[in-house]
Here is the input.
Amino acid sequence: MSNTAAAAWINDPGFKYQDNPVNIHTLFRKSFDIKTPGLVRATMYFTADDFAKLYVNGDFLQCAPAPGYQHYYYYQVINLLPYLNNGNNCLAVHNYYQGLINRVWNSGDLLCGIFARLELEYDDGGTETIVTDSSWRCLPCHAYDSERKFGYDTQFAEDIDMRIMPLNWQQPGYNDTAWIQAAIAVNYPHQLVRQETPPLTWRKVFPHEVKTLAPGCYLLDFGREVVGSAIIKTHGDEGAVIEIRHAEELDENGMARFSMRANCIYQEYATLSGRETDVIEFFDYKAFRYLELLNLSREPAAGDIYVYERCHPFPENGSAFASANHELELIWDICRRAVRLGTQDSYLDCMSREKGAYLGDAFVTGQSHLYLTGKTAMLKKVLADFASSARFCPGIKAVAPGAFMQDIADYSLLWPALLYEYYQWSGDADFVESTLSVLGGMLQFFAPFENAAGLLTDFTAMPILVDWPSNLRDDYDDPHLMGTPMEHQTGNNTVLNLYYYGALTAALKLYAIAGRKRAVITLEERRQKLQRGIMTQLFRDGLFRDTEISSHASLHANALALAVGVIPDHVDKTTIFRLVKDKRLSCGVYFAFFVLQGLFNYRQTDIAYELLTSEDKQSWITMVRSGATTCMEAWGPDQKWNTSWCHPWASAPVFILAAEIFGLKPGVPGWSELQFRPQVPAALPHAGITVSIPQGRIDAGFEQDADEIRFSLRLPSGVRANFSMPETGKRIIINGTQLNKGFSGIVA
Here is the structure.
């Protein structure tokens, strides 16, 4: 048999007649018969706008697509062979059009629909295709109608009416004759590209504890932060209404704090159908730990309530950390969990309020994610998403690929450095080559603001952040940072110019990788000129000042100077080290990455370790002692007015432990050789770590006493380690072999 019909975008024919449609749920079905004996391939190409959940023969399979711009819109390739039956089959799709301008999707564009092509191949060479066309049936679904929104207009409340939610609509044999014929959407503008990252994984998470608060009122504690959709099986009279509250913490009365700090009021309602069992399934996901249910007619039975938790595929045995410092282990745990939950179809800011991907957050989360998984596909996708944003601004957007267009200069200038880190992990020179036009456009965007000394001056193209929230900027002395009109940004901001220096440094390396010698020479001249300008105009009396006219020396200006390596070797850095040690983490949790990185760059190991494990108010231990199970948006719940309890931009300890304390970095692009440069803190007697690289797992550990440091190192097959370490006065033993004093070279 053979059928080569072309797929079309389809939607509800009534959609085009709606005035400013928002929060639109549409159900689609397609029944078809096949004979599975002899079926050898069943490949489905699928996408949707804005977002959809796909069911095959009644079973939920996955959601799609990852958000994308119209000019770079993702589709998934799915193997359906294990899910098809002999005889009648059903493809069912729950499609969603949000209609709002936010960081999540590219919506509000009056484009809504699904697109699918299922290719079947038999062992006799016959083929058949099932495509989206006018033979599909659809139903406008009003069971989720609500006008209330959460966060930054990123999610609608779901007040689910089970009376009008069709029962078993995803199953083969469901009678859909009352449904309407799908319409073909003409002139659909999306340019489709294959989504190279794997689909999200889903797993059921059951409550850790169920507590009765009052008759009909129950509090479910999942024991930790979860990210996903709640499923509730219950029963009640037709028209009975139950209240459902999600929360990340409890209030002073021990009830779910559903009016969350993160600007989300997680209070919703479900109207029951009167059937023997209602299965209430939330469509969109939330970030929460607690679920409170009111007005239930009976106590929930075991298994009746769970969360369908979602995230990018994450190897559970690919990473671990243990040490003599138990609280450091807890810090690792909350950071690791936040990275897992925060890596969805991108590296997200947070999973409640923004639900979008910021480049600054991705810079921290992405590098931690690499060590936790050893997989580079997500970082490549994120870099491509931000490269795609250059169509709207050559300087690269701060958030991508959502419809909400936001610029932050500090974030844009991190893109080249993150691209270089991707290359170091992957060795993917072809991808670097493919992005050079974007890199060149970004550098040209900033170049007109260079003054005679090479400094970016009177920069008015984008807001300058320095750090967030604004109360954690260490009194940075520039009154015209983000939150004030850009046209007032005058003079030379030190942090901006340091990020610019870091961008030029990374760009040099990227052009060298691509063999662009002339561009390397030109950029090196610009970089050296900028370095001289920074040192002559922004560095005075041993410290970096916030601007060329300021006398204030902030943590941010000085720590970032260490992080980007702008300080010439001959310049004494003692005063900077002392300032960082004294100011400690007087910054936001995001910027703490650069504070620690800068200290390790100059072997200030003990200062960095002291900050990493400090018990100050502004510390990761404050998060742990506040009851956090994932790292937070701020150092504690009361240090930011709208704090999220799950914010992976605070996951710097994962990277710092792996890359700096254990010193595990790519020795050559792609990791065939490991650079083993441990910086062992004097205050840490022993520790062990497991991280992942593309070739597999690395297990490393050390023990130390007054006389010696004993390292253990186990590498994947085909990977060798190149060791070096500063002189400590102690004997160095690796895998039982004592090294000669001052040894550096291959050890494994």
Summary: The domain at 376-571 is CATH 1.50.10.10 (Glycosyltransferase). The chain has four domains: 10-142+165-199, 202-311, 376-571, 673-746. The CA atoms of residues 49 and 111 lie 7 Å apart.
